[in-house]
Amino acid sequence: MAQTIAALSTAPGGAIGIVRISGDAAESCLRALFTPVGSRDLQPRVLTYGVLTVHGRVIDRPMAVFFPAPATYTGEPMAEIHCHGSSAVLQAVLSALFDLGARQAEPGEFTRRAFLNGKLDLFAAEAVGDLVTAHSEQAAALAVSQLGGHMSTEFADMRQRLIAVCAQFLAVIDYPDEEIEDLPLTEIGQTLSDMRARLNALHESYSRGRALREGLPCAIIGRPNAGKSTLLNALLGYDRAIVTDIAGTTRDTVEETLCLGGLVLRLQDTAGLRETDDPVEKIGVSRARDAVRHAAESGVVLAVFDGSKPVGGEDRMVMREAKNAARAVAILNKADLLRAEGWEELSDCFRAVVPLSAKHREGLSELTDTLLTLTGVRDLPSDGGLITNIRQAETLKRTAERLELAAEHLKAGFSPDAVVYDIEGAIESLGELTGQSVQNDIVDHIFANFCVGK
């Protein structure tokens, strides 16, 4: 029998709080606490109004519903109590359920049971986690696409095709004296090549998928008084950072998260880059350089320049700091006061140059378009074909490598058993993606990252 679990499945502080129950005693636990109003009894999958009684006291008049197995999220009997959002009421309900023999659900345990009971494969289960934590519409849309099963179906199809290839080779190995039709080596080689190309493309999509799922670090850099803090405030739509005419006002990094046209940016406004003898400002400059290095590896660098003044030595210091970033954009600020001296050289250092006025909030839409294009977030594949976590990316890479070895051994004329060994390794790796051959410790790690109640 499945031990019954219970948890609050909504965020604290809302108008409504939902307590979720799953396990063999879900219905009996619900009936012990909830009584429908009127003569109508609880009906499966029908949300019913009633009274909630704990230790002989009516503590709420909620809605409740139960779901018979196996057509439930977890594959087990389930129930939900839709209470008012009072923390006292919700805690009383959970305590009463625990007194009835249920226990507190662990993080991700509802979805884990759905996986173990065959309601979701592991790839789809991870999509559930992505959907719960999505910070943008694009991230949510990607998670929903993956939850729909298209990618899981594709992986399962690849696996079956590889199993069929192995069967052809094994027939030759196991029955050498039988008159078995010659292996279509050219066709098999092409199959392996096509699969490897698809797996590599999915692996390479991880940077885009990660950007959608986690957001990108974005360092805003520039010399003092170039307009970095004004740009931060303009992007956020409110005054987050202090802005003055005094150079060096920003001495530490100011961090905020922003969803910009579907792209989630983890913004860092940094201290102005310049040579200084001030020990406190030196620390700020050092932290600014650290932020640039971090954003240069996996994020975006926005280098802000004061277009109302000619290019100076401190501006060229900023250019040098940003030159190694794969996604660096030059912001030619104060474009309404632009002086042309020397600014054409920005085009030689940056992927894009965007003139704008942060003070008047002009040109921000052009900056948004540039960032969406530069990061590749603008167009999502309709099949959910972006990889969003490192486990998936590494598994895809490992699978492609095994197929590459198999193809090389096939081309070199190795014995069938050598080719089969590599293909079987690829089959095992594909099974890890969907959970057919995944180790328990990996499953534990995946669901430990879920929130309680999901």
From TrEMBL:
<keyword id="KW-0342">GTP-binding</keyword>
<keyword id="KW-0479">Metal-binding</keyword>
<dbReference type="InterPro" id="IPR027417">
    <property type="entry name" value="P-loop_NTPase"/>
</dbReference>
<feature type="binding site">
    <location>
        <position position="80"/>
    </location>
    <ligand>
        <name>(6S)-5-formyl-5,6,7,8-tetrahydrofolate</name>
    </ligand>
</feature>
<keyword id="KW-0378">Hydrolase</keyword>
<feature type="binding site">
    <location>
        <begin position="244"/>
        <end position="250"/>
    </location>
    <ligand>
        <name>GTP</name>
    </ligand>
</feature>
<feature type="binding site">
    <location>
        <position position="119"/>
    </location>
    <ligand>
        <name>(6S)-5-formyl-5,6,7,8-tetrahydrofolate</name>
    </ligand>
</feature>
<dbReference type="InterPro" id="IPR025867">
    <property type="entry name" value="MnmE_helical"/>
</dbReference>
<comment type="subunit">
    <text>Homodimer. Heterotetramer of two MnmE and two MnmG subunits.</text>
</comment>
<feature type="domain" description="G">
    <location>
        <begin position="218"/>
        <end position="334"/>
    </location>
</feature>
<feature type="binding site">
    <location>
        <begin position="269"/>
        <end position="272"/>
    </location>
    <ligand>
        <name>GTP</name>
    </ligand>
</feature>
<dbReference type="GO" id="GO:0030488">
    <property type="term" value="P:tRNA methylation"/>
</dbReference>
<dbReference type="InterPro" id="IPR006073">
    <property type="entry name" value="GTP-bd"/>
</dbReference>
<dbReference type="GO" id="GO:0046872">
    <property type="term" value="F:metal ion binding"/>
</dbReference>
<comment type="function">
    <text>Exhibits a very high intrinsic GTPase hydrolysis rate. Involved in the addition of a carboxymethylaminomethyl (cmnm) group at the wobble position (U34) of certain tRNAs, forming tRNA-cmnm(5)s(2)U34.</text>
</comment>
<dbReference type="InterPro" id="IPR018948">
    <property type="entry name" value="GTP-bd_TrmE_N"/>
</dbReference>
<dbReference type="InterPro" id="IPR004520">
    <property type="entry name" value="GTPase_MnmE"/>
</dbReference>
<protein>
    <recommendedName>
        <fullName>tRNA modification GTPase MnmE</fullName>
        <ecNumber>3.6.-.-</ecNumber>
    </recommendedName>
</protein>
<feature type="binding site">
    <location>
        <position position="249"/>
    </location>
    <ligand>
        <name>K(+)</name>
    </ligand>
</feature>
<feature type="binding site">
    <location>
        <position position="250"/>
    </location>
    <ligand>
        <name>Mg(2+)</name>
    </ligand>
</feature>
<dbReference type="GO" id="GO:0003924">
    <property type="term" value="F:GTPase activity"/>
</dbReference>
<keyword id="KW-0630">Potassium</keyword>
<dbReference type="InterPro" id="IPR027266">
    <property type="entry name" value="TrmE/GcvT-like"/>
</dbReference>
<feature type="binding site">
    <location>
        <position position="225"/>
    </location>
    <ligand>
        <name>K(+)</name>
    </ligand>
</feature>
<comment type="similarity">
    <text>Belongs to the TRAFAC class TrmE-Era-EngA-EngB-Septin-like GTPase superfamily. TrmE GTPase family.</text>
</comment>
<dbReference type="GO" id="GO:0005829">
    <property type="term" value="C:cytosol"/>
</dbReference>
<keyword id="KW-0963">Cytoplasm</keyword>
<dbReference type="GO" id="GO:0002098">
    <property type="term" value="P:tRNA wobble uridine modification"/>
</dbReference>
<feature type="binding site">
    <location>
        <position position="229"/>
    </location>
    <ligand>
        <name>Mg(2+)</name>
    </ligand>
</feature>
<dbReference type="Pfam" id="PF01926">
    <property type="entry name" value="MMR_HSR1"/>
</dbReference>
<dbReference type="Pfam" id="PF10396">
    <property type="entry name" value="TrmE_N"/>
</dbReference>
<feature type="binding site">
    <location>
        <position position="20"/>
    </location>
    <ligand>
        <name>(6S)-5-formyl-5,6,7,8-tetrahydrofolate</name>
    </ligand>
</feature>
<feature type="domain" description="MnmE helical">
    <location>
        <begin position="122"/>
        <end position="451"/>
    </location>
</feature>
<keyword id="KW-0819">tRNA processing</keyword>
<dbReference type="Pfam" id="PF12631">
    <property type="entry name" value="MnmE_helical"/>
</dbReference>
<feature type="binding site">
    <location>
        <begin position="333"/>
        <end position="336"/>
    </location>
    <ligand>
        <name>GTP</name>
    </ligand>
</feature>
<dbReference type="GO" id="GO:0005525">
    <property type="term" value="F:GTP binding"/>
</dbReference>
<keyword id="KW-0460">Magnesium</keyword>
<dbReference type="InterPro" id="IPR031168">
    <property type="entry name" value="G_TrmE"/>
</dbReference>
<feature type="binding site">
    <location>
        <position position="246"/>
    </location>
    <ligand>
        <name>K(+)</name>
    </ligand>
</feature>
<keyword id="KW-0547">Nucleotide-binding</keyword>
<feature type="binding site">
    <location>
        <position position="244"/>
    </location>
    <ligand>
        <name>K(+)</name>
    </ligand>
</feature>
